Backbone:
């Protein structure tokens, strides 16, 4: 089954920023409509403990566009969270996430999507398990207040663009097919 690694990001590669609201306050109706439509499709969300806590908090406060995630099956990879999980349709996995996702890709009848979860996504990309890499880039730079740099310590990847879309308020949705690299790409034609 297909695995999509999914992020939201500031232009400078941060997943969050100190003092800023969710989506940096730039989540226009077109983006939220896309998010809601795609959050209700038949897939399973994969997330780590921090993302689980954050997203459950958003859902509990009825943040627009997130409350629909309650009906989506969620698998939470954590050694720190204890059962029972309070967010509906959530399952806790304490074992090795890469091994568990490898097995899910083999046996699941639903597409798998990560949701944030930087270290989980990093491990899945490094293991070559991701079929798509999707990022919604919000038009803001949070260099001073930015928290959680997304790409630090990530493996080298070649990304083939398969889809791009611009939403209201300038948010870019970029979808790539990732390929794990053992070495840097050779120079292209015409490069010096």
Residues:
């Amino acid at each position: 089954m297909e695995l999509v690694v999914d992020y939201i990001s500031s232009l400078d590669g941060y997943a969050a920023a100190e003092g800023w609201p969710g989506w940096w306050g730039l989540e226009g109706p077109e983006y939220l409509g896309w998010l809601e439509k795609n959050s209700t499709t038949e897939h399973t969300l994969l997330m780590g403990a921090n993302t689980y806590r954050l997203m459950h908090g958003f859902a509990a406060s009825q943040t627009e566009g997130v409350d629909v995630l309650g009906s989506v099956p969620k698998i939470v990879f954590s050694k720190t969270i204890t059962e029972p999980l309070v967010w509906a349709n959530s399952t806790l996995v304490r074992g090795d996430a890469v091994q568990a996702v490898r097995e899910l890709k083999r046996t699941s009848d639903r597409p798998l999507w990560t949701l944030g979860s930087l270290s989980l996504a990093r491990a899945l990309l490094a293991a070559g398990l991701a079929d798509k890499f999707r990022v919604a880039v919000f038009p803001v730079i949070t260099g001073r207040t930015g928290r959680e740099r997304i790409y630090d310590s990530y493996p080298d990847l070649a990304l083939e663009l398969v889809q791009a879309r611009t939403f209201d308020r300038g948010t870019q949705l970029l979808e790539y097919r990732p390929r794990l690299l053992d070495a840097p790409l050779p120079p292209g034609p015409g490069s010096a």
In short: The beta strands are 3-10, 14-17, 44-48, 74-77, 90-93, 112-114, 132-138, 146-149, 157-166, 172-180. The chain has a mean pLDDT of 89.
